[in-house]
Amino acid sequence: MARMTMIEAVRSAMDVSMAQDDNVVVFGEDVGYFGGVFRCTQGLQAKYGKTRCFDTPISESGIVGTAIGMAAYGLKPCVEIQFADYMYPAYDQLTQEAARIRYRSNGDFTCPIVVRMPTGGGIFGGQTHSQSPEALFTHVCGLKVIVPSNPYDAKGLLIAAIEDPDPVMFLEPKRLYNGPFDGRHERPVTPWSKHDLGEVPEGHFTIPIGKAEIRRAGSAVTVVAYGTMVHVALAAAEDAGIDAEVIDLRSLLPLDLDTITNSVRKTGRCVVVHEATLTSGFGAEVVALVQENCFYHLEAPIVRVAGWDTPYPHAQEWDYFPSPGRLAQALAEVMGA
């Protein structure tokens, strides 16, 4: 198989989908001639033409609203919001229109759109280029929410999302675009070309939406993570020397609750880690579900490791960013309880 970065895997997913189905269209700010700010759509306009891959005005509400109208008439838009931080003007369209079309029409209409957006920090982007808003989508009935952690999953899940009849929020951790960042900012990042999950089939394949993956088997404690934090969790488990089982959620909505609960019932302990702010972050939902379903198996309180409850701080990025050290400390705390 070819070795791809996550950028190349995302681009390959759109390329495969556009070649297979003429109804798939790609648009957003700078995605055409320029190929996107991260070059995820580079070459697609030249290959498929300006009617299937094109630039839009700087209007996130307009991008998503147009996609909804196209979807209602049978097209399959895959649109890009340049950064997840910019999705707020489109939130009304996503929550009041896209998420409800199936329900409001009693199943007569669906809304097969994918909204791609680079998410998370770790690139010194400051408060308006580093946010992790996934919890705002998981609260909305009718949306699906995906956060891949590697190129293989990114391609398989994006093709599955494009083929899905309902709206999918596809959040791409920008710190993982070129390599599996483990939170150690002082060290060079290993490129995906040297990582097994950088091996990606060049043709069509899908990964089921709603199925988590166990990245590291263990029996002492369950670590639930997604996106960049999967690699931080793996590093922390190694540093702490703890037999931790690391679960990569991949899909937040629908959520693979069985994989989580089966693991916690085995280990008796659980740590949940995410990059977003702590209060009302998606980790709170995971904690509640584990508490409800695994209470009599727990040997210690569940612990969360997350970003601070503050706007993303440019000058204090690496203190804000959940690190292997912070997570290793939480693991030790849970094991000592």
TrEMBL record:
The answer to whether keyword Oxidoreductase applies is yes
Cofactor annotation:
thiamine diphosphate
Which InterPro entries does this UniProt record tie to the protein?
THDP-binding, Transketo_C/PFOR_II, Transketolase-like_Pyr-bd, Transketolase_C
Please give the Gene Ontology molecular function terms for this protein: oxidoreductase activity
**Keywords assigned by UniProt, alphabetized:** Oxidoreductase
Where the record annotates domain Transketolase-like pyrimidine-binding, the positions are 4-179
> Domain of life of the organism in this record?
Bacteria
What does the record give as EC number? 1.2.4.4
Where, if anywhere, are coiled coils annotated?
Answer: none
Q: Name one Pfam family in it.
A: Transketolase_C
The name on file for this protein is 3-methyl-2-oxobutanoate dehydrogenase (2-methylpropanoyl-transferring)
| Organism (species) | Rhizobium calliandrae
